Amino acid sequence: MFWSKPKTISFEDAQRVLVTLLRDVRCNSWADRVSATSPNAFPSLLGGMGSLNDLIICQKNHHELAAEREPLANELMSCLLSVCYAASRDGTLTADAAVASCGTINLVLPGWRCLVCGYGLITSRSARSLISASDVRRALRDGIDQRSPSDSLLALWRGPENLNGIQALIDKAQKSGIQYTDEDRWMRPCPGCGSSDTCIYRWRQDHQRLIPTDDNLPLRNSCHGTTTNGKQPIH
Ligand SMILES: [Zn+2]
Q1: Is 168 strand, coil or helix?
Q2: How far is the CA of 140 from the centre of ligand 1 (A)?
Q3: Are 8 and 94 in contact (CB under 8 A)?
Q4: Suppose 113 and one of 37, 57, 166, 201 were both cysteines; which one would form an S-S bond, judging by CB atoms 3.0 to 4.6 Å apart?
Q5: Where are the domains of the chain?
Q6: pLDDT attached to residue 223
Q7: Ligand 1 centre from 189 Cα, in Å?
Q8: Which of 36, 35, 73, 32 shows the shortest CA–CA distance to 55?
Q9: Residues 83, 88, 93, 97: is their CA dihedral positive or negative?
């Protein structure tokens, strides 16, 4: 019997993917700095104004990528920074430790809600952001399990977009009563009632439905079963 490669991800595995991602979008100055850093020096690239975790990969910042790839690029970068940081501190990481380091804050569907009538809206960009968050964690876990985490993450980054996943999520949103638009813009006024009382809102997956997360503002009429003008709602 021989010792096989352990099912872990190392600092260098994550660093290699991060450098490739940064070079692919022509962010060469950061690619050079990440490529030259040691695990001990890596934390010095993070924190403070203009640091690596302030970087947003997007066309507006003159990076070379299609607009629809921006959510995946930023989610992948964010998870790689977390994995590099955790691995620089703890050494190689198991799948559970690597995925945990990425956190769960992005595993929600962001969108808009009218607090008066409850009209909810998501955009193709919001669907992409949740699918990217799920896909990066899955590629990380599967890659570590198959002892090739860098290849798995690079295949996700350079492969075709997960259009089936995006469409399934949009279908699930619509079945949960949430509207969908291709346009990436603020929802104000509300298309349902014309009110300007709209806000950013988040939903999470719950089996076959999407339900509001606990940190949203409450709808105006949700407390006592009355509408905002004090009358009983019509059933
Ligand atoms: Zn409304």
Answers
A1: helix
A2: 40
A3: yes
A4: 201
A5: 11-212
A6: 55
A7: 8
A8: 73
A9: negative
